What does this fold into?
Amino acid sequence: MRINGPVAPMAATAIDHIPREKACSGGCRYEPKFDGFRCVARVSEEGDVQLWSRRLKRLDAAFPEIVSAVSATIPPGTVVDGEIVRWGGDGRLDFSALQRRHVTRRTGSPITEPCHYVVFDVLESGGTDHRSAPSPPAAPSWSASCTPCPARPASSSARSSATWARPACGSRSSSRRASRAWS
It folds into this structure.
């Protein structure tokens, strides 16, 4: 594997409006903003899983169900970028419950609020580091079919992305959107 240690996740940039479809060289890829903890998951060639926060802190002990789901779903030799989220009883993202859950795991309490890991991008697979690609590959079919590790929806349509900014999608605010630009 080329990515051996912790790696910072790809960063989003806050914007005031959704850019037009032709505003980005090579086209735009729109993705909804999730309210959770950014996390890079690395599955070694031997199948060991490491979870890293955006501040490069280990998250394995805090989210053992994510480690199990990643181990069962993502092939060895793969590094993915995503977000740990907690769905509330109403079907919306619940960041407060995610924070409570993170704190209770540090105290050794049992898991009463299970979380999910939403996969954004594949940073490495099959010995190929995709980070320098103009647009890293989106999560392949194995993530779309797995409940604990779903792929985040993406679209090249600005119209589709406008619906993701609504509060029903779990975003903090309907007026704040995030965009990631690929060089």
